[in-house]
């Protein structure tokens, strides 16, 4: 919510942040202070836990433990703390959003699910869960992931214009906040025919990646501020998708008359969007 440009007027008029907090209309300052305290606690907690574990010799390799052991003394503790927190917060809700969309898509498109399960089963057999290194060998499942990112991109982008510019006749002053409508780019009819159809096959047959229309690159932003976690996120999301398909089948729930209840596929507003709560059944494919 803090990053939602329309949620707080101070996001549009930064000068308001200079006014004292006792003035009317300054409740955003109280809210900002509460969020800052939460964020600081998150940063402190992760750092303190890692530090304790290093001291007791029980730590596992992670960003903080690496910085404090292999690179001891090289970085300011505040930098380590807040960089690790930024990496965690950058990846948490975005990955949750895209994986929730995957469950929604599987509930809505059973044929896609069957096809992907066939591919996963053929590669892995029945007894081996997928690993990171299997990702390259699952072209249909990878296309399914591309289609989830295209149909349900988790995050719209805002960028600040670095210089005065003219775009299609509009003057854009340096410092203007620009909103890039990622959803609209990924639903452009002239690039993705029938953009509202969920069709992983399009990634295998239409040279979309060669035409710089790869949803994976568009959904992770552009230029200097593009997501630094993209490659990790791709592998994580694909591995979770393949593991889920290998172990479970996702179906709609059934009503009293035995008919499937098809979710409405509505999404929340905000900086990171999520499917609104929906019901589905997740059944193990093999006996437990
Ligand atoms: C489904 C997964 C993800 C999506 C869709 C996503 C998308 C994005 C987008 C659109 C941005 C803003 C780029 C811009 O302003 O141009 C961003 C920034 C960022 N992401 Fe991700 N991300 C994902 C996962 C991750 C993961 C797993 C990590 C960490 C391991 C991560 C770390 C970050 C960080 C640190 C930034 C801020 C970069 C900066 O401000 O310069 N993201 N992400």
From TrEMBL:
<keyword id="KW-0349">Heme</keyword>
<dbReference type="GO" id="GO:0004497">
    <property type="term" value="F:monooxygenase activity"/>
</dbReference>
<keyword id="KW-0503">Monooxygenase</keyword>
<dbReference type="GO" id="GO:0020037">
    <property type="term" value="F:heme binding"/>
</dbReference>
<keyword id="KW-0479">Metal-binding</keyword>
<dbReference type="GO" id="GO:0016705">
    <property type="term" value="F:oxidoreductase activity, acting on paired donors, with incorporation or reduction of molecular oxygen"/>
</dbReference>
<dbReference type="InterPro" id="IPR050364">
    <property type="entry name" value="Cytochrome_P450_fung"/>
</dbReference>
<dbReference type="InterPro" id="IPR017972">
    <property type="entry name" value="Cyt_P450_CS"/>
</dbReference>
<keyword id="KW-0408">Iron</keyword>
<comment type="similarity">
    <text>Belongs to the cytochrome P450 family.</text>
</comment>
<keyword id="KW-0812">Transmembrane</keyword>
<comment type="pathway">
    <text>Secondary metabolite biosynthesis.</text>
</comment>
<protein>
    <submittedName>
        <fullName>Cytochrome P450</fullName>
    </submittedName>
</protein>
<dbReference type="InterPro" id="IPR036396">
    <property type="entry name" value="Cyt_P450_sf"/>
</dbReference>
<dbReference type="InterPro" id="IPR001128">
    <property type="entry name" value="Cyt_P450"/>
</dbReference>
<keyword id="KW-0472">Membrane</keyword>
<keyword id="KW-1133">Transmembrane helix</keyword>
<dbReference type="GO" id="GO:0005506">
    <property type="term" value="F:iron ion binding"/>
</dbReference>
<dbReference type="Pfam" id="PF00067">
    <property type="entry name" value="p450"/>
</dbReference>
<dbReference type="InterPro" id="IPR002401">
    <property type="entry name" value="Cyt_P450_E_grp-I"/>
</dbReference>
<dbReference type="GO" id="GO:0016020">
    <property type="term" value="C:membrane"/>
</dbReference>
<keyword id="KW-0560">Oxidoreductase</keyword>
<feature type="binding site" description="axial binding residue">
    <location>
        <position position="227"/>
    </location>
    <ligand>
        <name>heme</name>
    </ligand>
</feature>
């Amino acid at each position: 919510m803090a990053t939602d440009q329309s949620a707080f007027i101070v996001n549009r008029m930064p000068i308001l942040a200079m006014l004292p907090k006792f003035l009317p209309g300054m409740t955003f300052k109280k809210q900002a202070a509460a969020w800052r305290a939460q964020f600081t606690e998150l940063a402190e907690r992760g750092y303190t836990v890692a530090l304790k574990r290093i001291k007791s010799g029980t730590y596992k390799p992670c960003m903080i433990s690496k910085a404090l052991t292999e690179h001891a003394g090289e970085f300011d503790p505040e930098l380590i703390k807040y960089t690790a927190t930024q990496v965690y917060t950058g990846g948490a809700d975005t990955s949750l959003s895209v994986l929730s969309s995957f469950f929604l898509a599987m509930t809505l498109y059973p044929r896609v699910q069957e096809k992907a399960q066939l591919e996963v089963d053929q590669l892995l057999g029945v007894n081996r869960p997928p690993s990171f290194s299997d990702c390259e060998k699952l072209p249909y499942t990878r296309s399914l992931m591309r289609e989830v990112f295209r149909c349900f991109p988790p995050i719209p982008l805002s960028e600040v214009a670095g210089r005065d510019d003219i775009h299609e006749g509009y003057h854009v002053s340096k410092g203007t906040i620009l909103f890039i409508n990622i959803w609209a780019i990924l639903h452009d009819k002239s690039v993705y025919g029938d953009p509202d159809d969920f069709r992983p096959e399009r990634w295998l047959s239409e040279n979309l990646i060669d035409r710089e229309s790869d949803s994976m690159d568009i959904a992770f932003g552009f230029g200097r501020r593009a997501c630094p976690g993209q490659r990790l996120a791709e592998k994580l999301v694909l591995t979770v998708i393949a593991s889920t398909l290998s172990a479970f089948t996702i179906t709609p729930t059934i009503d009293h008359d035995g008919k499937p209840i098809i979710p409405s596929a509505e999404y929340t507003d905000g900086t990171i969007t999520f499917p609104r709560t929906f019901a589905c059944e997740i059944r193990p494919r093999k006996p437990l």
